[in-house]
Amino acid sequence: MAVHMQFSGDAQKHVQAYLDYYNIVGNDDNGQVMSEAEFEAYKKKVQKARENRLYVAWRNSKGMDCKMVGPSSSCFCGHRYRDHNFDNVKTKEVHCKDKKCACRLFSYVPIYGSADLKCLCKHSYMQHDPRTKKCKTAKCTCSKFISNHSCSCGQRYPEHTTVFESREERQKQGRAVDPPHMKGNLAAGMGGVTDFASLADGAEREEMMRPMLPGAAHRAIEGGKEEQKEKVGGAASESGTSAFELFMAPHQYGGTVKKIMPSKNFAQYIEPAKKMVGTVSYTHLTLPTSDLV
To answer: Is the pTM of this model over 0.90?
Structure first.
């Protein structure tokens, strides 16, 4: 159940100030809030490293960035990415800040919430050593963590690796980096998150950017009810059309079918499309006339 909190007067400003502070400092203050002078000194200290931060992704053997690591992404050691030394840009030695933790390098684990990732030995990844990956359970003969977890890309867990790249390295490969308006962003542990679309799985991002076949798109919009039940690419609804299908399909506007053409404003369509839960009717997607031809 959602909890709504209301603040009046200066309380709202104080709460927002702390949220801004936490987004930058994270747990580096060891639970003791810094003074204003200490906070300003801290920002100057990390500014260069975060403007040229490490981009972290969970990549499959075919080169697809299946998951872009963010502040709350889980490591094999059980800690979050924000709990690691992500400011070690030059050496890329992103080890855990917890002195009691044996983790020497962040290793992404594809879990959400209370979910678990189990080894073929039937023990959780948390029951394996974060350095050797050997099972720590008594009498277990498992020498290395191996999981059959299947990614949305179709490949399994062992066929993925956690990669650390600089801005220059990603640009040379033609991969996404922070847009100009994010310059000066000091948020802690951003990892591979560059925009709203980077929160989606790699397979979903690829599908979202792939144009539909004209015939399939035409059927999705103008076909009869039986034809509309045909799946074109995603999960079908009563109208047979998924949000991603409609995102790339021609749209009905002003009584004529008009096709979305690539433009500089292409990114603005991502958010309304992503807000659609599951599948929707095409009439629910509104686009500006300036990008319809």
So the answer is: no
